[in-house]
Amino acid sequence: MSPRSASVNEELRRRSRERLLQAAVELVGERGYEATTLGDIADRAGTARGLVSYYFPGKRQLAQSAVHRLMHRTLEEALEREPHTDDGRELMARAIDAIMGLARDRTVLMRQHMAGLLQAEGFLQCPEQQRLAELLRETAARHGSKDADHDYPMLRSQLMGAVYSMVLPNVPLPLARLRADLFARYRLDWEQGVPPDAEAPGGGCDTDLSRFFATDLPSGDQSK
Fold first, then answer.
1. Closest to 189 in 3D by CA, of 93, 95, 100, 75
2. Each residue's pLDDT tens digit, 40-98
3. Which has the closest alpha carbon to 137: 152, 156, 120, 119?
């Protein structure tokens, strides 16, 4: 058997990282952060335990990257869904509803994520977080911001505050009240985006997250 090419090895490494991200999102959402070990994640991903540290310095970094991946892919999906639009107000409404929808549909996962951000290491930079930042900054600009670098952190802060308020144990604030406040801030109509009493595109919370994690080899490449 001939040795694998460098490109195939790189693709296999990419797939391994993707499987770890997907496994982390699934397990933390099911069990919570503390009850999920790196060994659990490696087992779910079908990879060796030692391979986790090759891609991520630790569990906190892996968990944050995984949730930021879910957030930015959910946001991308919302911004790009049919009907396509260039209306900045509609795009802002979709962005708000996408992030708040995660807090509603994946409460345990988002609660654990918010708790992680309050740890000593705080907000960790990673490619997934950077992509989320790019999308939110672009949304602010398309909404009409003249200084997106200034306005983006405010949008991020308001969304984080809304998510925190929704996932706070025992005293969560309702999505509709938080949505109304954010929509008023950004001068949006209630009917824009996906109102709470409307059916979400795709039929609600989808338990299959595989579309957000590219774990398949390109067609035609069957290397193992």
1. 93
2. 999 999 988 888 888 998 999 999 999 999 999 999 999 999 999 999 999 999 999 99
3. 152
Give 111-115's long-range contacts (Cβ < 8 A, gap of 24+).
111/167, 111/168, 111/169, 112/28, 112/32, 112/33, 112/63, 113/63, 113/64, 113/67, 114/160, 114/163, 114/164, 114/167, 115/33
168: left (phi over 0), alpha (psi -120 to 50) or beta: beta
The Cα–Cα gap between 150 and 145 comes to 9
Concatenated DSSP letters for 159-192?
HHHHHHHHHSSSSPPPHHHHHHHHHHHTT--TTS
Q: How big is the chain, counted in residues?
A: 224
Q: What is the pTM of this model?
A: 0.87
